[in-house]
């Protein structure tokens, strides 16, 4: 049976909207991590068969297939193709899935997967502006309206609906967020991210975590919606970053003398209610565990994207997963969420955390626009 292996993973620091990465061109930033990945794994770039990158805001400097332009911007071989995909926040996790599936199918042996997003340069929602300017509906036409009516469809409303349905109070959300920042600061101070990060544009560490965050400070913030429970403090911030992962077959590992670090154990993707939008990690996790023949207690590390605090809290409540093992080094609330890059960023963090702690299985899942989610289980190679 064919196997797909993770050979290498690297990421930039995640930057803030006004930080040191904000003015960097996304193609150059992505090109930097692509080149660094190949240098670290000592792979001949000419042997790579495809480059698959996730990117959500595919307009302006992120348009025209940034996977291809990033590869070429890095001075890498012209004969290697690239494609850019959009599965919303899970775009680069899906890129990893597509790369693994190509290897598992036996059609390709060596693929680079990853993602990039400069949300400071390409604001979130830029790719819907044209339709709005022409008076077109935000989402769809008559078919959508017949099915879902004219109710508001947004991630912010979805997060509020989840908090309400699962009964999370504002203070519970804020306590979760404070803990995310605490864990992230500990991870930075202990150097847990140092080996996985490649400095770029003079930035060496993640810029987002707030060392001075307290419940008292959070309590003073304005609600995002009147009568709601959500504030900016329990949401992931505008961010900038890139990450890349090398996926290889057993034949490629032998041929290129590579060292496998983890095996792709199970892959799943699921649709969910597009109004709640962010509950997809719950069924996606169940699917991945079923496909992998595992239980929730078999997993040593969980990376669950903290788009908003209610998302991992509802996920943990439904799956029975331990919050102690979930985002052990902080999540997107503290470390940022550069949309199309986050999936590969989380995969990189999970791989390194398994190696740091000696864990065997890691499970990553992310909520995605439109009511979707990916889930990936990897097994560390001892």
Could you explain how this protein is built, in words?
Residues 5-250 form the Thiolase N-terminal domain. This protein has helices at 26-41, 66-73, 91-105, 129-133, 142-148, 155-165, 170-189, 215-219, 250-255, 281-292, 310-319, 332-335, 342-357, and strands at residues 4-11, 15-16, 50-54, 82-85, 110-118, 239-249, 262-271, 301-304, 361-368, 372-380. The chain is α/β, with parallel strands linked by helices and 382 residues long. The protein has a domain at 265-380: Thiolase/Chalcone synthase (Peroxisomal Thiolase, Chain A, domain 1), CATH 3.40.47. The longest helix has 20 residues, at 170-189.
Largest sheet descriptor: 10 strands, mixed
- H and E order: EEHEHEHEHHHHHEHEHEHHHEE
Q: How far do the termini sit from each other?
A: 20 Å
Query: From the 3D coordinates, which CATH architecture of the domain at 265-380 would you assign?
Result: 3-Layer(aba) Sandwich
Task: Identify low-pLDDT runs.
Answer: none
What is the beta-strand fraction?
A: 15-25%
* Rounded radius of gyration (Å): 20 Å
What is the average per-residue confidence, as pLDDT, rounded to a whole number?
96
What is the name of the CATH topology of the domain at 265-380?
Peroxisomal Thiolase, Chain A, domain 1
DSSP summary, beta strand count: 10
What would CATH call the class of the domain at 265-380? Alpha Beta
CATH homologous superfamily label of the domain at 265-380 = Thiolase/Chalcone synthase
Structural class: alpha/beta
Using the alpha-carbon principal axes, give the shape: globular
**Number of contiguous helices:** 13
Q: Which percent bin holds the helix content?
A: 25-40%
């Amino acid at each position: 049976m064919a196997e797909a292996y993770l050979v290498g993973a690297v990421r930039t620091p995640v930057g803030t909207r006004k930080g040191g990465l904000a003015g960097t061109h996304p193609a150059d930033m992505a090109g930097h991590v692509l080149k660094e990945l190949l240098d670290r794994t000592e792979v001949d770039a000419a042997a790579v068969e495809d480059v698959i990158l996730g990117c959500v805001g595919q307009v302006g400097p992120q348009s025209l297939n940034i996977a291809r332009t990033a590869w070429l911007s890095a001075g890498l071989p012209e004969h290697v193709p690239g494609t850019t995909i959009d599965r919303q926040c899970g775009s680069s996790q899906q890129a990893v899935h597509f790369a693994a599936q190509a290897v598992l199918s036996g059609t390709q042996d060596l693929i680079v997967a990853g993602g990039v997003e400069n949300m400071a340069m390409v604001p979130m929602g830029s790719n819907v502006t044209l339709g709005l300017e022409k008076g077109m509906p935000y989402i769809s036409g008559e078919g959508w309206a017949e099915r879902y009516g004219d109710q508001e469809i947004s991630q912010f409303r979805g997060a509020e609906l989840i908090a309400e349905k699962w009964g999370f109070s504002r203070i519970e959300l804020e306590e979760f967020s404070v803990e995310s920042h605490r864990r992230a600061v500990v991870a930075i101070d202990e150097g847990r991210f140092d080996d996985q990060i490649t400095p770029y544009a003079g930035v060496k560490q993640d810029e987002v975590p707030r060392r001075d965050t307290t419940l008292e400070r959070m309590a003073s913030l304005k609600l995002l919606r009147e009568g709601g429970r959500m504030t900016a403090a329990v949401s992931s911030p505008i961010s900038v970053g890139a990450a890349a992962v090398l996926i290889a077959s057993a034949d490629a590992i032998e041929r290129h003398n590579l060292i496998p670090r983890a095996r792709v154990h199970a892959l799943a993707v699921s649709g969910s209610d597009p109004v709640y939008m962010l509950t997809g990690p719950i069924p996606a996790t169940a699917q991945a565990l079923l496909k992998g023949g595992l239980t929730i207690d078999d997993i040593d590390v969980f990376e669950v994207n903290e788009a908003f605090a209610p998302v991992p809290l509802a996920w943990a409540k439904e799956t029975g997963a331990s919050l102690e093992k979930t985002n052990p080094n902080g999540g997107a609330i503290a470390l940022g969420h550069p949309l199309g890059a986050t999936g590969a960023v989380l995969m990189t963090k999970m791989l390194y955390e398994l190696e740091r702690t000696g864990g065997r299985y890691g499970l990553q899942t992310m909520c995605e626009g439109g009511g979707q989610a990916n889930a990936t289980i990897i097994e560390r190679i001892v």
